[in-house]
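>> received
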Amino acid sequence: MSKKKLLAMVLSLGGLILLTSCQMRIQLGKSTETTEKTTEASTATEASSEELEETTEATEEMINTLEATEEVTNDTDVMEESTEEAQSGKPVSEVMDMDAGTVLSGEDLEGIDIDELFSSEPISDKVFDRMDGVSFGKDCTTKRKNLRYLRVLHRGFDGETHIGEIVCNKEIAKDLLYIFRQLYQEEYPIEKILLVDEYGGDDELSMEDNNTSCFNFRPVAGTGRLSQHAYGRAIDINPLYNPYITSDGFVPVNAGDYVDRSAENPYKIDRNDLCYQLFDERGFTWGGSWNSVKDYQHFQKKE
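>> returned
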């Protein structure tokens, strides 16, 4: 074989070896790159797993914190509810069971809807036992079923809240509840609101004690004609300070200082008075507007 052919063969074999070496290096490079990527991916996966575990732990801590906060909040709510119950004063039912004339404190009324203390109901046996043979005489022609027992609040002359009671005709029960609710809201002073039965049914004794009252089966004073009080359709307000005046005199007998209606009188009812305006608004007639006599305490609403 010539030297030229041998040299050519060597060069060809060297080129092949070089080419093969290059290919192997390239393949090895690719493998290494793949391995590195796989390693990086694995490392990233491990990092992600660690981050996920950390996130999960943080989430669990947040949940635990929220649950603990909720428990504290619930405990706080229970404590607040207990505190509110403790500060809510007496139940409405307990106040309603108190005797008329009772003075209520701010603590008694705390948490109570005042409107619930203005109520109307048929005459119960308990109330009728007080009336029977007194304001509801044996000759009474007004039917018990046509009467209503009212509980109201009023501002006494002492500025305190008092419990009042009224027996009236069922036809004016709503009117009276509305009027006395407004009077109380505006702090209009009324000394007493008790059934006339507390005075043995004696109208004059009730007036002398400045008691505001409504139903009493009796005639008009000095006549044989039934009063509107006998039907439960009339009410007298602060009667001592707003007397019944005729040409012969006045009642109650201790009202002499209040007969002159031009004189100063802190409890005087006239056309500028809130009491007059409320009764007039609800269709009542005022005795102070009569001609032959003047009954400044008296408001009535006929059928």
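>> The chain has a mean pLDDT of 82.
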